[in-house]
Amino acid sequence: MSVSAMSADNKVTTRNSAKSGKPETPEPASLQSIDDKLNSIINILRKHTDDIQDIKKEQKDLAASIELCHTNISDVKQLVTEQGSKITACEDELVRVNEENQRLWKELKSTKKELRDLEQYSHRNNLIIYGIPEDKNENIQHVMRRLAVTLQFENWSSSLMDAVHRMGKATQTQPRPIIVKFVSRLDKDDFWNKRKFRRNLRATDLGYSSENSIYINESLTPANRELLKMTREAAKQKGYNQVWTTNCSIFARREKGSPVIKITSSTDLQRM
Predict the structure, then answer these.
(1) Which residues contact 205 (CB under 8 A, 6 or more apart)?
(2) Residues 6+ apart with CB under 8 A from 180
(3) Are 124 and 247 in contact (CB under 8 A)?
(4) Do 227 and 259 meet the contact criterion of CB atoms below 8 Å apart?
(5) Parallel, antiparallel, or unpaired: how do β-strands 249-253 and 242-246 relate?
(6) How far apart, in whole angstroms, are the C-alpha atoms of residue 123 and residue 82?
(7) pTM of the entire predicted model
(8) pLDDT tens per residue, range 220-244
């Protein structure tokens, strides 16, 4: 059969198929097209495989990081436990130090009190006299004799005194107090008790022209003088009308017949 005849037959067949309404059978795909598709699929699979490998690597790295974190957490826990033990030890030591500190403070307070008592004890034979006019050329021994006579202190003698002198530097405003140290505490107490009979003693009673009031007090240490001052101030505020010293100790009471409070430190003022 000739090529022309074959073409004519194909055309007739096509027309006949169109007329009959049956679908045409597709021509089979070429090998090249199939190969291209397979290559595309292979490339996609390779990409996915690479992605999976990357994910696995990341998962492996993450697992290693998590393991490292667990190790670090364990180390931190151990460190916290160790620090907790150290803190507990420090707290125990702090408690011990505080207890020791309190004990030392008590000892220091007791020692200070003993020192104050010893210092005050050294003043036990002393009296301080305020208000006697001061003369540049005075004989302090004669001044004390005039005071003793005024107080009716019998058998007065300068030998009763171990020392006597004015205190501090001279001023133009007021006379310096006189401090006298007796040889015997009994003589000191006897002389001091005589003042009770002349509570309103004035300088004129000794022959001076001055109207100064004369006061005779026990000799207190600086700390006790300050405490006595604080006691008198507290007494004014709280309505106490009696503050005095006996044997260099400070006492206070609201009125005659009321309880007597011995003042040994500033904390005792709260009891008033």
Answers:
(1) 150, 198, 214
(2) 126, 127, 129, 144, 161, 163, 164
(3) yes
(4) no
(5) antiparallel
(6) 61
(7) 0.59
(8) 999 999 999 999 999 999 999 999 9
The type of residue at 256 is K
The answer to whether 262 and 270 have CB atoms below 8 angstroms apart is no
156, amino acid identity: W
Q: Cα 41–46–50 angle (5° rounding)?
A: 150
> At residue 110, what is the residue type?
S
How many Cβ atoms sit within 10 Å of the Cβ of residue 7? 10
Tokens for 164? Answer: 């006597």
Structure confidence by residue, pLDDT tens digits, 152-210: 998 899 999 999 999 988 887 889 999 999 999 999 999 998 987 777 899 999 999 99
